Amino acid sequence: MALDPFGKDFNVVPIAAGTLLSMKDCAGYVFVMTGNDTFTLKTAATQNGSTTPLAVISDYKTCTSTSGAAAWVDVTQAAASTVTIASGAAKIYVDGEDMPSNASYVEVSAASGGLVTAIPCGLLVQRAPENLRVLSGASS
Question: To the nearest whole percent, how much of the chain has pLDDT over 90?
Answer without folding.
Answer: 91
